[in-house]
């Protein structure tokens, strides 16, 4: 009788302990009894600003981006391959390969190969077909040439009387996406900085160009505010990427260092802030390193044909 009673007691204790472990499953304990944070859902916001010379990103002119740079891994010596046209720069930023592979050497995209070298969105969709991937651009060749329709859930191609008007539509669309939907990977693009650079110049001393940069910075501020206002933001793990397709001086398309000099900003809680600078191409990161960085963060296998590699370890 005593053995039966003991057996019942032991059974009851085991049941209580098992129930307790389920109750604590949402807040497991570490070695010191402290609560372990739940694994957050990884997401990416990639902001592309065409023709943005990083030397204009000073607090007085670009408070949002200059502040973000202080909290991020930053390369101000990033390199856009020759020739320094937008087709080449954005193709590198999406395909993860050099111009010798994607072949988008001019803005005509003649002979470009996005069949063998698709945008990084393709690999994200292959791993997770249900991922909500969104792209909003105001330079339409990015959608017409580089990003295949099947690789994104939503394509937003904005037009207007000028690039400033089209950029405003991109901003509204992305703020709406972040506020009212649940995207996993978002690309947001602004063109007006490059447009103003072409109509005047890309010099950091040009007041007209600086004004366009300031407006782009305000747009970025609004997008980031919408991101951080998301109801589930505290349970999400966002990688924020900001980059450009080329630099500039009097114009771009040439081989001067100012035209090749781009920048890359990577912001995430797992990334230690760091500034990589210099005025040389040797050893500097190329733009095609951005796609493998995004895929690495998301846990998506990096294609063997990539020329780039992740810029940081996650």
Give a description of the structure:
With 314 residues, the chain is of the alpha/beta class. 38% of the residues lie in helices and 16% in strands. The chain contains eleven helices and eight strands. It has helices at residues 2-23, 63-70, 86-95, 99-102, 120-127, 141-146, 163-180, 192-199, 207-228, 257-260, 290-298; strands spanning 41-49, 73-79, 133-137, 154-157, 185-190, 236-243, 261-267, 274-276. An eight-stranded mixed β-sheet has the order 4-3-5-1-6-7-2-8, sandwiched between helices. Helix 6 links the parallel strand 3 and strand 4 (154-157). The model is unreliable at 1-33 (pLDDT under 50).
Instruction: Please tally the β strands and state the result.
Output: 8
In the sheet with the most strands, the strands line up as 4-3-5-1-6-7-2-8
**What spatial form do the alpha-carbon principal axes imply?**
globular
User: Hey, roughly how much beta strand do the residues contain?
Assistant: 15-25%
Output the structural class.
alpha/beta
Distance between the termini: 59 Å
Question: SSE string, helix = H, strand = E?
Answer: HEHEHHHEHEHEHHEHEEH
How many helices? The count is 11
Q: Would you tell me the overall average pLDDT?
A: 91
Helical amount: 25-40%
């Amino acid at each position: 009788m005593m053995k039966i009673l003991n057996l019942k007691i032991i059974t009851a204790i085991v049941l209580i302990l098992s129930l307790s472990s389920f109750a604590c499953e949402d807040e497991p304990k570490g070695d010191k009894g402290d609560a372990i944070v739940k694994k957050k859902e990884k997401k990416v916001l990639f902001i592309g600003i065409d023709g943005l010379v990083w030397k204009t990103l000073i607090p007085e002119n670009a408070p949002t981006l200059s502040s973000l740079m202080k909290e991020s891994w930053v390369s101000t010596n990033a390199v856009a391959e020759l020739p320094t046209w937008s087709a080449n720069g954005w193709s590198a930023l999406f395909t993860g390969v050099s111009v010798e592979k994607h072949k988008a050497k001019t803005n005509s995209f003649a002979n470009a190969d996005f069949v063998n070298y698709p945008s990084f969105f393709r690999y994200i969709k292959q791993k997770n077909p249900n991922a909500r991937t969104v792209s909003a651009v105001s330079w339409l060749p990015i959608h017409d040439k580089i990003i295949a329709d099947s690789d994104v859930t939503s394509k937003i191609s904005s037009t207007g009387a000028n690039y400033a008007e089209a950029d405003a539509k991109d901003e509204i669309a992305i703020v709406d996406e972040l506020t009212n939907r649940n995207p996993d990977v978002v690309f947001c693009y602004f063109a007006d900085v490059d447009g103003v650079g072409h109509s005047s110049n890309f010099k950091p001393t040009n007041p007209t160009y600086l004004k366009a940069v300031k407006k782009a910075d305000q747009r970025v501020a609004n997008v980031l505010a919408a991101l951080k206002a998301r109801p589930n933001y505290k349970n999400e793990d966002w990688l924020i990427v900001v980059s450009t397709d080329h630099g500039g001086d009097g114009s771009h398309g040439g081989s001067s260092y100012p035209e090749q000099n781009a920048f890359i900003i990577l912001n995430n809680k797992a990334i230690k802030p760091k500034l990589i600078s210099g005025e040389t191409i040797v050893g500097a990161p190329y733009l095609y390193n951005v796609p493998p960085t995004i895929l690495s963060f998301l846990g998506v296998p990096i294609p063997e044909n990539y020329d780039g590699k992740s810029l940081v370890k996650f």
